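name: query_chain
kind: protein
chains: 1
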Amino acid sequence: MAGTTVDHLTETYRAHYRSLLGLAALLLDDTASCEDVVQEAFIRVHSARKRVRDPEKTLAYLRQTVVNLSRSALRRRILGLKLLSKPMPDMASAEEGAYDQLERDSLIKAMKGLQRRQREVLVLRYFADMTEAQVAETLGISLGSVKAYGSRGIAALRVAMEARA
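structure:
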């Protein structure tokens, strides 16, 4: 086969859109950005579908694209925040109200406190239900690194969750 077909990509879209949206939601912090990232991932995979020689790897390619696009979105957001002027101390910004609502869940708060790689490994391993080998391939790191980031991430989560209790 000369790559992933449009029909196969459409089927993958229908079957995995929600799980990819959930993956992005654990890496980002607002629904609109998550939807944008997942849509962009499908557009990019559609454009590059001839290079995905094994149709069985389409989902893995999509997951990796979602992770990479989420990283890029976070980098752009951080740069934007650095360039914005600081609001006056007595003025609450609109973002503060939105972030307060999103941060009510203790687990999400604890996940945000993890190092980027720890968070990525835990999200892919436990939310996306990937094997350690699949996580290693998706992130482009060794299997040993996946195990190390995973165990350190779980230990950090345990400490953060106990501190909130």
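note: Helices lie at 6-27, 31-47, 58-83, 94-102, 106-112, 116-127, 132-139, 143-164.
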